[in-house]
């Protein structure tokens, strides 16, 4: 075990699983994988897992990609290119490339690691942290690593504490009084409570800590199992629960908070509604997710752009933003922006209004447009006079409107609308 002055993260690598499509985000993932989707004004979703690893002290990372990976790979090449091999720092991007044979791409989350065993071996590490690349949270992985080593576990599973009946959409851990996992249930209809509080359940975050020598052997064994789906949550974790020692780590113990009284913030922004809500929540007076905390920054690709600019000061034509986040390169020209989040390089024109709008980079909003409760995909050109958010039936003819009334707008949708008019 590491001494008090040596962090376990110095002997650990982070393996980020970033190959998922994220189909519930609908058209937002038509051209990019879910981890590459923009979030919070200037970052991408994958930046949170990578930043947590970096801030925890991990300097060896790998990112497994598969579905429509170009945007993700380009972002990592531009934003995460500061690792220096001469300082024993590495970030490898591992696209599915049929490295084991000429038939199979990555068959599951565990297979993505199995196909790169030789690369992980080259890192010469003792521990591996397996991370999902598509969640929003801040976490110190060193805390979880120390729990793993001190307990002598074969695997430690990061877990959220959630109200019991809200856990039906997760993989749920049944535990004993020592937090040892006694069973792993995938999306149970009646989730088990915890020994200390029957009203809550422990839901898997898709974060796993292993000794590398143990995981390597397990992956090879799984690869030879004909009926396995080669998945951590579906195959490897249940196997260890039954035949080894699996421990649960509670996220509340390692969550990085800006205030000790703040809630443990974790979001799966896997639906359009959840994605819109998490972005709009950042405009609150004191958001639960603190992006301003310089002690635990979220690293990303920082474009060289000028500051945001607000112009015109006339009645009905005043460039203003209230309770909003406006990124660099934006020009708010005679537009009223309220409770909205604008990513880099958004331009809005006179007499327009935006209310609870999430605009991805390079969006242009035409004059007199009135947008409410919208997500605008990257590069969308909103035509002059477009009104969205007042007539859901009309909006649904051209755009995707969610059950809660959020409208997703992409350029192909606008093109179809223009062709039909």
UniProtKB/TrEMBL annotation:
What reaction does this catalyse? alpha-D-glucose 1-phosphate + ATP + H(+) = ADP-alpha-D-glucose + diphosphate
Q: Which CDD domains match?
A: ADP_Glucose_PP (cd02508), LbH_G1P_AT_C (cd04651)
User: Could you list the residue ranges forming a coiled coil in this record?
Assistant: none
* Alphabetized UniProt keyword annotations: ATP-binding, Carbohydrate metabolism, Glycogen biosynthesis, Glycogen metabolism, Nucleotide-binding, Nucleotidyltransferase, Transferase
Similarity-based family: Belongs to the bacterial/plant glucose-1-phosphate adenylyltransferase family.
NCBIfam families attached to this UniProt entry: glgC, PRK00725.1, PRK00844.1
The molecule here is called Glucose-1-phosphate adenylyltransferase
């Amino acid at each position: 075990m590491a001494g008090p002055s040596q962090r376990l993260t110095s002997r650990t690598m982070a393996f980020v699983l970033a190959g998922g499509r994220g189909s519930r985000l609908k058209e937002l993932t038509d051209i990019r994988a879910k981890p590459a989707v923009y979030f919070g004004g200037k970052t991408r979703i994958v930046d949170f897992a990578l930043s947590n690893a970096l801030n925890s002290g991990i300097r060896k990372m790998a990112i497994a990609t598969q579905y429509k990976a170009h945007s993700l790979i380009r972002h990592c090449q531009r934003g995460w290119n500061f690792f220096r091999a001469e300082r024993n720092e590495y970030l490898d991007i591992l696209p599915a490339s049929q490295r084991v044979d000429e038939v199979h791409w990555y068959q599951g989350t565990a297979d993505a690691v199995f196909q790169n065993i030789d690369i992980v071996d080259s890192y010469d590490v003792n521990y591996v942290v397996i991370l999902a690349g598509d969640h929003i949270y801040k976490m110190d992985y060193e805390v979880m690593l120390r729990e793993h080593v001190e307990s002598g576990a074969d695997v430690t599973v990061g877990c959220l504490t959630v109200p019991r009946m809200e856990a039906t959409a997760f993989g749920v851990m049944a535990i004993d009084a020592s937090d040892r996992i006694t069973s792993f249930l995938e999306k149970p209809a009646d989730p088990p409570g915890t020994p200390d509080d029957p009203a809550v359940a422990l839901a898997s975050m898709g974060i796993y800590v292993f000794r590398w020598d143990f995981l390597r052997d397990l992956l090879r064994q799984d690869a030879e199992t004909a009926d396995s789906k080669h998945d951590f949550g579906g195959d490897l974790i249940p196997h260890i629960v039954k035949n080894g020692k699996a421990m649960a780590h509670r996220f509340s113990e390692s969550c990085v908070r800006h205030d000790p009284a703040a809630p443990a913030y974790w979001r799966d922004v896997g639906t359009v509604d959840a994605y819109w809500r998490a972005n709009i929540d950042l405009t609150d007076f004191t958001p639960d997710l603190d992006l301003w905390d310089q002690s635990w920054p979220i690293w990303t690709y920082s474009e060289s752009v000028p500051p945001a600019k607000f112009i015109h000061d006339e009645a009905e034509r005043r460039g203003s933003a209230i309770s909003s986040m406006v990124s660099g390169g934006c020009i708010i020209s005679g537009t009223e922006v309220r409770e909205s989040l604008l990513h880099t390089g958004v331009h809005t024109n006179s007499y327009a209004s935006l209310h609870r709008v999430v605009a991805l980079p390079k969006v242009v909003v035409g004059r007199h447009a009135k947008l409410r409760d919208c997500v605008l995909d990257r590069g969308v050109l909103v035509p002059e006079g477009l009104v969205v958010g007042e007539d859901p039936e009309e909006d649904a003819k051209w755009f995707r409107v969610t059950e809660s009334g959020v409208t997703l707008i992409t350029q192909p949708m606008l093109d179809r609308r223009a062709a039909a008019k």
